[in-house]
Amino acid sequence: MTVQNRHRIPCPHCGVNLRVRKSQGLTPVYREAVFECRNEDCGWRGKASIEITHTIAPSDIPNPTVALPFVPRLRDLIAKQAHAANG
């Protein structure tokens, strides 16, 4: 049994869910995609940019070429832990 992705992007014109027609990764954190409306009566197509902007939970196998800022909550927690360790 396949688990379907529950994240849906509605068409900006008719509200029907879009489908990805093609997607290209330009960097490890940036992709461009072409979307198409599933409503044949609408026919809208458009391009979107998708960017990963922050780290919420650090990777256990980090890519050394990727430097994403931490969300403020995580940044503050790391700073408190470092301060406590240097105490």
How would you concisely characterize the structure shown here?
This protein has 1 helix and 3 strands. It has 87 residues and is an alpha+beta fold.
Number of domains: 2
Order of helices and strands: EEEH
CATH class of the largest domain: Mainly Beta
Unreliable spans: none
Instruction: Quote the average pLDDT.
Output: 91
Number of strands: 3
User: Using only CA atoms, what is the Rg?
Assistant: 19 Å
**Any idea what the CATH architecture of the largest domain is?**
Single Sheet
Protein name: Ogr/Delta-like zinc finger protein
Pfam family, one: Ogr_Delta
Domain Zinc finger Ogr/Delta-type: 11-56
Map the helices and strands.
Blueprint: E1 18-27, E2 30-37, E3 45-51, H1 72-86
Antiparallel strand pairs: 1-2, 2-3
InterPro entries: Znf_Ogr/Delta (IPR007684)
Organism: Chromohalobacter marismortui
Domain Zinc finger Ogr/Delta-type: 11-56
Give a verbal description of the structure.
The structure is a single chain. It is built from one helix and three strands, in the order E-E-E-H. By secondary structure, it is α+β, with helices and mostly antiparallel strands. A three-stranded antiparallel β-sheet has the order 1-2-3, with no helix packed on it. It is elongated, with a radius of gyration of 19 Å. The N and C termini lie far apart (52 Å).
